Amino acid sequence: MMPSGSGIWLGSGGIITSKWVPDGPRAKPIAIALATLLFATINVQAAPATKSSTYLPQASPKWLPSFPKQKNVITSWPPSNPKAALPSGPLSTASFSLEGYPTMNEVVTNAAKDPNIIPIMKAIDWTKVPSAPVTSDAYGDEYPASDPYCWWTQTLCTTPKIHYIPPDISICPKAGTWGLTYDDGPMYYWPVTAENSKWAEPNLYDYLLKHNDQKANLFYIGSKIIGAPAAAQRGFNDGHTICAHTWSHPSMTTLTNAEVVAEFYYSLRMIKQVLGITPKCWRPPYGDVDDRIRAIAWQMGMRTIIWDRDTNDWNINGDQVAPGPGAITYATANKTVDNWIKSREEGKDNKNGHIVLEHELSNSTITLAEFWLPTIQKEYQTMPATACNNIAQPYWEKQFIYPIQGTVAVDTNGEPTGVKAPQI
């Protein structure tokens, strides 16, 4: 159990506090919980990366500052010295100078007046951003059944109603593939104690390294990086693919346009300052995304990655404050994964592979991630979600070229890049 007075994060599939507090999470609408639970059993199909010349053009974000290179961080993939041992063991306690950021774990409420945000607001083509209403936590029946804005929270929609941005990446196209993703990192507890640190990074990263040097997508929260930058660098140096997961982990459709831009900007800025990269991928907290949010993300250089299977590890009633009476046991979470594996073994799951939601969030989620991994590796070809969708260059910095499942590397818009990438 967490020590008295410790704050806690809950994850993408569940609930997250808006700040570090000892009295647990704020409530979220039941619509989100129901939609997430549905994904544990229902395979909702969505188009993978598809070729198209009709998508809005993207460019490397020019509004991000330039930062001095951090020490001991890789500058390409494969590394310039591929024979060098990957780091392991305790993380460095070296201090980092990370200034100029908003309050940790809180939405930037003054975003419209933020001098960092104003130039981006002017650069975005707002005629290409649908005027979907800002939602509230009180989801009701007022949203049209026709789903005009492809709102995942209400309908699990992943194919936009606008033609100029691509569908969400939500599956691995090849059957028998497990798209390994971990949200809400880098994992750490506060205050840092011996017991808390037992489950903090590099616990999971060490485990992945020892188990076939397994790679994954890590969806990092900007506010978590500022608290554990060395952990973020370790995950990156190990060869995991880093994607953005916003600054403070809010329900994105509840934010104004300026607040949405700020969530993206400060998460990208933090990742660039600490790791030296600019991700072209992001995941919405709680899966809460619609075409307004997708269009802003796309114009800020990122494609949306979601999931089609949820382990519900975030909802374990263990060391964390679970979201209400619906909290599940370890046995229930294990049964969910066991049923997926059984379906695959029986030949009932052979249409496509899956992107699976897991978390580096608490001792519960780390325990389950490590418990499941060996079996998953035996039954599935296991890789990052970007790799199974043949995205070899997930950053705007082109010197990072990662292995892919297929033979043709594509950009996040689905177009072949001409880059030669090794196969997994």
Automatic annotation (TrEMBL):
A Gene Ontology biological process term: fungal-type cell wall biogenesis
GO molecular function, one term: chitin deacetylase activity
A single cellular component GO annotation: membrane
Superkingdom per UniProt: Eukaryota
NodB homology domain boundaries: 176-383
UniProt cross-references to Gene3D superfamilies, sorted A to Z: Glycoside hydrolase/deacetylase
The protein's name: Peptidoglycan-N-acetylglucosamine deacetylase
Organism for this UniProt entry: Entomortierella parvispora
Lineage: Eukaryota, Fungi, Fungi incertae sedis, Mucoromycota, Mortierellomycotina
